[in-house]
Write a structure and sequence with these properties.
The protein has 147 residues and is of the alpha+beta class. The chain has one domain (2-117): Aminopeptidase. The chain is 32% helix and 24% strand. Strand 2 and strand 3 (58-68) form a beta hairpin. InterPro entries: Acyl_CoA_acyltransferase, Bact_Acetyltransf, GNAT_dom.
Length: 147
Amino acid sequence: MTVEHATEEDSEIISVILGEIEAYYGGSADAPDVKQVRQALFGPRQAATVLLARDGSQILGLASVSLLWPAAGADTSLYLKELYVREDHRLKGVARALMDAVHDEARQAGCSRVEWTADRDNPPALALYAALGVSPHDGKVFYRSQA
């Protein structure tokens, strides 16, 4: 297994996986428009970086990250928006490999920390983060509003 940056040629499989993620959380399994994925990841205003776990030509999972500024003072942090392992590849070390790659990405970008959220009703994710030795941060409250 390798973890590497997604390329524009990966847009279609990323779209498929985004549909899987929506279904995992109880939404529609319809994949988003590939053009929308391509524009968001490889257009002039790149919204995120996607790391893909691969076994040959097979995509096992993905991590989507973005830079946040400021973190502490003028430091930058790396925000993990999505970590997803496809169903047939769970509990095989893929998520841990992706988390290692996310932390490598943060170090290479000069970030002082990695931040993310997790749903309280996602025990597998919470167990992974506990196994990695990371404790929840109680000092933040999450908000969401429409743009």
